[in-house]
Every structure is written in C-alpha cells, then in structure tokens.
Amino acid sequence: MALNKKMKKVTDYLVQLGLSEIEARLYQGLLEISPCTVMDVADHVSVKRITA
Questions:
Q1: What pLDDT, in 10s, does the model give residues 1-51?
Q2: Cβ neighbours of residue 29 under 8 Å, at least 6 residues apart?
C-alpha cells in the first residue's frame, strides 16, 4: 500500500474517532515533523495557517 493510501486510511480512522479531516491531517503532520511551529505543520499538510 502506498504511503498516501496509508495516510488516508489513518485520517479516516481519526475522523471516525471524532476529529475533523483537517484536525486529523494536522495531528498526523505533528507526529511526522514534531517539534515544529504551527506554520511548519500547516505547510507540511497543505492547510492554511489561519485554519490550523
């Protein structure tokens, strides 16, 4: 399974647990590049900083 498909599957599980799609993506981004700034993780997961 490709990495993007695995990441989508994890996102889907997190959404089932009650997170929004953006929250799930941000959470995964934090796990991937932590420690970081909000701007770093927002850029990493392609979310506008104001949304993050």
A1: 576 888 889 999 999 999 999 999 899 988 888 888 888 888 888 887 776
A2: 41, 42, 44, 45
Q: What is the pTM of this model?
A: 0.75
Distance in Å from the first CA to the final CA of the chain: 28
d(CA 35, CA 25): 16
Count the neighbouring beta carbons within 10 Å of the beta carbon of residue 12.
Answer: 12
Q: How many whole angstroms separate alpha carbon 1 and alpha carbon 27? A: 21
- Rounded to whole angstroms, what are the CA distances from 2 to 8, 20, 52? 10, 23, 26
13 to 3, 22, 45: CA distances (angstroms): 15, 13, 17
